[in-house]
Amino acid sequence: MDKFDLVIIGGGPAGLSAARIALEAGLSVTLIDRSISLGGQLIKQTHKFFGSKAQYAKTRGIDIANILINDLDEYKDRLHILKEATVVALYKDYVITVYQFNKYFKIQAKSIIVATGASEKVLAFENNDLPGIYGAGAVQTLMNLYGVLPGKEVVMVGSGNIGLIVSYQMIQAGVKVKALLEASDHIGGYLVHASKLVRLGVPILTRTTVKKAYGKNKLEKIQTVELDEQWNYIEGTETEISCDALCISVGLTPLHQLLSMAEIDMIYVNELGGLIPKLKKNYETSMPRVFACGDVTGIEEASSAMVEGKLAGLLASKSLGFIHPEFELLEKNLVEQLNNLRQGPCGVKIRLGLEKAEVNSHD
Amino acid sequence: MSKKDIIICRCEDITLADIHKCLEQGYTTFEELKRILRVGMGPCQGQTCSSLIQKEIAIFLKKKAEDVLLQKTRPLVTGVKLQDIADSADE
């Protein structure tokens, strides 16, 4: 069984950022990702990012992925990348099992950074298995990676940034977005994105959700319903919208499975999307030398995942005896960046959620 | 509302009607539902259905969703052919 100093599971924004910093600090890194290309969800994000320059604002997601990947090049001799490799299990004795090209094999890590990201939540409604009903991630993959339209007339469910941005991208691609439904009483994402849609004539219906889908062999129309303050259907408010695609974008949930199966201390935090690891300030889980960062520690934006990845890489390296040449400056700067990203009314939920998962020590 | 047309676990093709029937019979934990219905035991290992099932249990027991325990996660996270595991056994 091969043994490695630091294994990073997941090559998205968090994992790539952590890898770079750990390499700079002098560690040898093994980076494992299940996809054909590194970059995680960034590779299907054709829009330019918001935020500040430190998180590549005004650069498209796909280009950020390439920057992060190219940033690893100079450390090739200490970097071992496994692509199209799924980590299928993590065990208490630091054994990781990997499935790649129909080969199942074990490796052992001295330390691990888990950056597995998140998966999409789904909705329960009548006929929710009809062809034409997609998650927003699938729509982005189809359109932005493969150039395939999801349909001609679409209804989007969910007004978070993903729902807003994907709606806009569909319009750019020539799809008619007939409506955007939002179950709560306000738009979830940035108003600047929502305003663009409204200017283009997309009705945004708050306190409204999808109740039923109709169609013989594929989606033909949906029935919407208004919701009361307790999120219950208001009978008699049903309306029909004809469409051949329905895109569900109702949030993400952390991919916690590897952490959970190693019996690492977890906590369910609603504000952050589901089950997340309890973390010390240095991103260490209750399993010594196993760290976590990015969406697996709570759902945020890709910008936060990158900063968190760097910080986790920095602090993990330190606890393994590899102190980054610019440790103090970097730590101060990264903590500041994270605080900035999480400040203001949009960050309230995130700050509240993170407090619940933070521990001083793992006893 | 036709509960049998609402898919909750798409890997194992389990509907809301199936879930409600079990809840009414007294199987009110995720682990029990998993053993009886196989929810969460397909290719995605519960990544898709778990929050929906958690919510249904919570409504039935009049609890908060976050107070309903999720299923135990065990290796492996996805399907691996037995042949491939067998081939690696001598290592």
Brief description of this entry?
Chain A is an alpha/beta fold and 363 residues long. Chain A is built from nine helices and 19 strands. In chain A, strands 1, 2, 3, 4, 5, 6 and 19 form a seven-stranded mixed beta sheet that branches. Chain A has a five-stranded parallel beta sheet with strand order 8-15-9-10-11. A three-stranded antiparallel beta sheet of chain A has the order 12-13-14, with no helix packed on it.
Provide the domain count of chain A: 2
Uncertain runs of chain A with pLDDT below 50, 5 residues or more?
none
Mean model confidence by pLDDT of chain B: 94
Shape of chain B: elongated
- According to CATH, the fold-level topology of the largest domain in chain A is FAD/NAD(P)-binding domain
Shape of chain A: globular
CATH arch. level architecture of the largest domain in chain A: 3-Layer(bba) Sandwich
| Widest beta sheet: strand line-up of chain B | 1-2
Q: Sketch the topology of chain B as an H/E string, one letter per element.
A: EEHHHH
Of all protein chain pairs, which has the greatest interface, and how many residues does each chain bring to it?
Answer: A-B, 35 and 31 residues
Number of helices of chain A: 9
Number of domains of chain B: 1
Helix content of chain B: 25-40%
Instruction: Give the distance, in angstroms, between the N- and C-terminal Cα atoms of chain A.
Output: 31 Å
Main structural class of chain A? alpha/beta
Radius of gyration of chain A: 21 Å
Class by alpha and beta content of chain B: mainly alpha
Specify the biggest β-sheet of chain B: 2 strands, antiparallel
